[in-house]
Write a structure and sequence with these properties.
Layout (H helix, E strand, L loop, with lengths): L5 E6 L2 E6 L10 H15 L6 E6 L3 E3 L4 H8 L35 H5 L4 E5 L2 E3 L1 H8 L2 E5 L3 E3 L13 H9 L1 H10 L3 E2 H7 L4 E3 L1 H18 L2 H13 L5 H15 L3 H11 L12
Parallel strand pairs: 2-3, 3-5, 4-6, 5-7, 6-8, 7-10
Antiparallel strand pairs: 1-2, 8-9
Length: 282
Amino acid sequence: MNFKEIIVTKANGITKIILNRPDKLNAWTTVMGNEVKEAIEIAGQDKECRCIVVTGSGRGFCAGADMGNLQDISDGEIGKEIEVDIKIKPYQADKNLGPQILENFEGRFAYMYNCPKPIIAMINGACAGIGLIFTLYADLRFTTNEAKFTTAFASRGLIAEHGIAWLLPRLIGEAKALDLLLSARIFKGAEAESLGLVNKSLPVEELENFVNNYTKHIAEKVSPRSITIMKRQIRAGYSQTFSKSLEIADKEMFLSFEQDDFKEGVESFVENRAPRFRGVGK
């Protein structure tokens, strides 16, 4: 696929999506949003892909919405902010792979929850506004100690957009979420880790190597079928009772006993070798 504002590479089961407007700190545009969505949909349906990494080119990850777009909106051209349908048919979740979740999630980034592959945000620099929201829909977040974060909305006369008012308190707690949203203050990667906003913060020179090793482990050591189901279990659990979550887990556990991935997982452990997971079918 030829993209205008992102770069997509594939190697060793890893699809990397690079936001590519470095002169604008990868500020978010409608084109970029549509291209990222399409690239994730393609990777999610690619049998060779085991993991998706999204990062930014240059010094930033994503500095928020492009100010030109915000200017258009402030001038009354609201339609310019709305994204259009992508060309590829959206992923249709296999009913045999865990609970269905899309009925409980909608909006701009819901497709990331529905994606069967793990999505990792490698936050290499400035991360603000809609760029920050995007990372919250990723499954895992890794960053640098010096990367700068801000929710930004209150400082632009905006409100908590695109589900962040729901997501952020669940990730870091209500008091911390209110601090970041109401103050719109700037904080760095090390604090983001202490807040629980990211999984890990590292020195700049260590981030890429760490993520490469992490994704290599996912691609080579764990069952893609297991990952797909566990992603759905977690997100479905947001609207379930404990009893319902346990009921689904019991059902899925017995189904997993019948799968090739389970047999391979046991055999590879007993034989002390790397597993060769298929991830589909039995």
